[in-house]
Amino acid sequence: MKNKGKKLFDYSWKRYLVSFFILVLLIGVLVVILRVEEDYTVLSSYEKSDTSSTQYLAFGKRMFKYSADGVSCMDGNGQTLWNCTFSMQSPIADVCEGSVVVADQQGTDVYIFDEKGQKGQFETLLPIEKVKVARQGVVAAVLTDEDVTWINLYDTQGGEIAKMRTTVKESGYPMDIALSPDGMKIMVSFLWPDQSGIQTRVGFYNFDSIGQTEENNQVSLLTYDGVVAPSVYFVDERRSVVLRSNGFSVCQGAEIPTEKVSVDFDEEILTAFHDDGKIGFIFKSDKADYKYKILVYNLNGRCTIKKYLNMDYRQAKMMEGNILLINDKGFQVYSSRGRKRVDVTYKKAVEDVASVPGLGKYMVVSNGHTELIRVK
């Protein structure tokens, strides 16, 4: 009987120790999860000889830097893998999976790159307003010719695949365009001057066989009265998004897109930002203790994050579901669940920040320097 009691005691004691260690482990995990990173280590630094137009794009597992003087591709350690020099007045760029296009806005130069380097280059006959690229390097360009606007499709060497002629009188003013990842569909947001005010028309143009039988290849048209749609984009071949001045719409359809989700706001949108799966909006706060309110939605129209903050941001980005807020003094990062993960006060005035492949890595552009840092 005595031995039996001892065994029970030993068993209870072992179970207590196991429970204790599990509790300690859980507490440690919670501390790591809830910790806000404020310190950082500079991994590499170099003087920024770039012009003020230098910008960064996430390019697969690499970073793509472009400016008026040229472009370069860097790995996760900030090392330059390749570069290409040119001279542009006002470079604009777009990225789709493994392809990047850089063009001279109001100029005629177009360069296409993949992860290995330059893939193509050509000149347009008319000044460029906007460019978009598909995964295989097909380029859509908005070109201006006095009262006529052309929306043309090109291959990587400048061969004309298709062209669309538009005028303000017939279609409206093109606010934005999007090109599907497969390069077969174009989405255009037109601002139409209506007698009672304004109207936005979003046209879908299909250059596959289904669009060949339609006038001007247009397979679908959405109209929005009294609002502006300054931004449109494709998520994939089947889904696309219209960002409106009063909300957003999600369209679906591989061949003939139709509106499936519509979310409207009564509040004024201060800033909108997105990645492929989430759409974020910043409003003035409806709480006295905070300056701003952030709402993030998925493509089904469900709000996944509601967050209040006081940070005076200059720029807002979304990268892989995380929210990146930037101002002159530093930056903050919120997780896909709205939890603050990073709050860095930088030692120099911050111009831009980009998330770099690698745990806790960021490229910080400041006055005179570009630094690769790791938060800790």
The gyration radius over C-alpha positions equals: 25 Å
Give me the CATH fold name of the domain at 265-344.
Thrombin, subunit H
Q: Outline the biggest β-sheet.
A: 4 strands, antiparallel
The whole-number mean of residue pLDDT values reads: 87
Percent range of helical residues: under 10%
Structural class: mainly beta
Count of discrete alpha- or pi-helical segments spanning 4 or more residues: 1
> What is the strand arrangement across the widest sheet?
1-32-31-30
Low-confidence stretches: 27-34
Shape: globular
Spatial gap, N to C terminus: 56 Å
State the CATH class of the domain at 265-344. Answer: Mainly Beta
CATH architecture of the domain at 265-344: Beta Barrel
Q: Hey, roughly how much beta strand do the residues contain?
A: over 45%
Overview of this structure, please?
This is DUF5711 family protein. Keywords: Membrane, Transmembrane, Transmembrane helix. It comes from Fusicatenibacter faecihominis. The structure is a single chain. By secondary structure, this protein is mostly beta strands. It has a domain at 265-344: Thrombin, subunit H, CATH 2.40.10. 9% of the residues lie in helices and 55% in strands. The chain has one helix at residues 2-34; strands at 40-47, 55-59, 62-67, 70-74, 80-85, 91-96, 99-104, 109-114, 117-123, 128-133, 139-145, 148-154, 160-167, 173-179, 185-194, 197-206, 218-225, 231-234, 239-244, 247-252, 258-264, 271-274, 278-284, 292-298, 303-309, 315-319, 322-327, 330-334, 340-345, 350-355, 361-366, 369-375. A 4-stranded antiparallel sheet has the order 1-32-31-30, with no helix packed on it. A 4-stranded antiparallel sheet has the order 2-3-4-5, with no helix packed on it. A 4-stranded antiparallel sheet has the order 6-7-8-9, with no helix packed on it. The chain starts with a helix and ends with a strand. Mean pLDDT is 87; it is low at 27-34.
